[in-house]
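[Automated response] Your request has been received and processed.

Submitted sequence:
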Amino acid sequence: MEKRNFKTIEEYINAFDGETRRILQKIKETVREAAPEATESINYGIPTFKLFGNLVHFAAYKKHIGFYPAPSGMEAFKKEVEPFKTGKGTLQFSLDKPIPYDLISDIVQFRVEENKIKAGKK
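Generated structure:
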């Protein structure tokens, strides 16, 4: 898929076909359920959820889905993310393996609490 200037997460998701679109939609729903008060936007050209600052980002690539919960989100779930390819604040979910939606939900809930505490909104 060529790089485009998406205005909404829905527009981004709809630029993909088939299974990739279905996975992106399910990730969006998973994040929405875990962080119902978060707002949706496009940052860095990819889907972003915000709540007192950036919460998580995600994006589709040729062979994987990138999920970006910030380094703190990775650190808090060090053991759970071990089976996946990771980088600083980055998780890669291979498109040929099941996507760990429960883990995504847990990380998002952690990030919500973390951002609320940072913002003094607890």
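Summary generated for your ticket: The CA atoms of residues 27 and 66 lie 11 Å apart. DSSP finds five helices and six strands in the chain.
If you did not submit this request, please reply to this message.
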